[in-house]
Amino acid sequence: MSKKETFYNFITEGNATKGEFIPVGAAMLDGETITGAHVKIPLKTMNRHGLIAGATGTGKTKSLQVLAENLSDKGVPVLLMDIKGDLSGIAQPSPGHAKIDERHEKIGLPFEAKQFPVEVLTLSEQNGVRLRATISEFGPVLLSRILDLTETQSGIVSVIFQYCDNNKLPLLDLKDFKKILQYATQEGKAEFTEAYGRISTASTGAILRKIIELEQQGADLFFGETSFDVQDLLRVNDEGRGYINILRLTDIQDKPKLFSTFMLSLLAEIYSTFPEQGDSDRPELVMFIDEAHLIFNEASKALLNQIESIVKLIRSKGVGLYFVTQNPTDVPEEVLGQLGLKIQHALRAFTAKDRKAIKLTAQNYPDSEYYDTTEVLTSLGIGEALVSALDEKGRPTPLAATMMRAPMSRMDVLTSSELSTLLSNSKLVKKYNETIDRESAYEMLNDKIKAAEAEEAKEKAKKEKEALKKAEAKRKTTTTKRRTSTRINPVVKVLTSATFIRSVFGILTKVMSK
């Protein structure tokens, strides 16, 4: 048996599957595509997470697109983090091309142009379904980790949440949280001190600065109502095809804290609300995080620990996470070790550091008697990748240099008119894009402060009125005393009058003259 035949058997036997699967391409040997030697990913293992990596322009986004399309076709909803803004074309069919036909002839797979059910989401003021969450939904622990607070500061955040729960003050947005921080050390200082102990103004000031930093990255648009229900990510259309939810993130590339805040809140919400799946034949939801380094590069130690914990646990909920980045080293080792599927496009070795990174990358893949992995990593062409997946029993499939199939949808963005049409037909736009600013902690505390000030002013006026009354009564008493002390007795008045004195002197004079 020739080397080519042996390799064909090796690949096809290693990729044999009893259940549903996604064929991503055909294996290559010595630069030649082996027609029919299909590399398959069992649908059952798509909740085991994965990595799509490679240098710029090598085809990472197209591989992401292929996986998303095939998942949708099989009724699995998808969430795509579209950092570069080049995925919206999934809503339109591919126009086709001679090179696509040539590629698929080599692979041995038919090509069918299709459009897919798409929902466009946004965290900012871009057009799309607005994603929001309330401060209360985050809770004190998650919010403290997002803000990278100290233990003391985290304790204060817990006290704030407890106070709001006890007093039925909804914490919806950042202005609510900033207001309660201010209240705790100013107008409500005595109330907080009596119930919870003294709260340091230095600590609340530090927390406030962290909130302002988050606010400057656009978090004021994210926190609030209407809060997004993650169950709406699980929709399928009337044909049974899963919706591909595309989150437009082109305007937050320089706002990694906002991106990581959203990601962590989303994963936490999914984990807390999705039921346990057990050993399911298909995932409930698959998420692709493009430019994944944006999460990890700016994340605090506490945030990284939280992400690592959720990555380990969330697959039990039937959710698969796929990180798309230039180099596997962008992903922490603790997360990388949890990834079952790896699609590695070409890496470029321009510097000694690049060569070292390639050697490290090669060590993440199973050894193969057919490839020198380090060499293959630098010789792959556009649309080619090393693929290592898990079979239905959780064992690694044979490592295969693979010619990847082409996307069935458009490999370009929607036009403005196409996007407008898509959004005008969206049920979720109607559900989530109305801005709601109901009475919450900010307004309630302001009312409480105003009421307290009014009561204080009333009490002050009452005291002033009473003081005036007392002063007036005292004045009257004093005046009366003065009048009493200066009034002359009538007898004395007669005895001391000039007429009386002259009469007395007249009588005395007459007596003396006699």
* Main CATH class of the largest domain: Alpha Beta
Please tell me how large the radius of gyration is. Answer: 39 Å
Low-confidence parts lasting 5 or more residues at pLDDT below 50?
Answer: none
CATH architecture of the largest domain: 3-Layer(aba) Sandwich
What coarse outline follows from CA principal-axis ratios? elongated
Tell me the total number of β-strands: 12
What is the tally of helical segments? 19
Q: In total, how many domains does the architecture comprise?
A: 3
Q: What structural class do helix, strand and pairing data support?
A: alpha/beta
CATH topology of the largest domain: Rossmann fold
- Major beta-sheet overview: 12 strands, mixed
Mean pLDDT: 86
Region (Disordered): 465-484
Protein name: DUF853 domain-containing protein
Domain Helicase HerA-like C-terminal: 34-504
InterPro entries: HerA_C, P-loop_NTPase, T4SS_component
Please tell me about this protein's structure.
The protein is of the alpha/beta class. The chain has three domains: 338 residues, Rossmann fold (3-Layer(aba) Sandwich), CATH 3.40.50.300; 89 residues; 65 residues. It is built from 19 helices and twelve strands. A twelve-stranded mixed sheet has the order 2-1-12-11-10-3-9-8-4-7-5-6. Strand 1 and strand 2 form a beta hairpin. Helix 6 runs parallel beside helix 17 and helix 9 packs parallel to helix 11. The protein starts with a helix and ends with a helix. The mean pLDDT is 86. This is DUF853 domain-containing protein. Pfam families: HerA_C.
Descriptive terms for the model:
DUF853 domain-containing protein, alpha/beta, about 525 residues, P-loop_NTPase, 3 domains, twelve-stranded mixed sheet, 19 helices, Rossmann fold
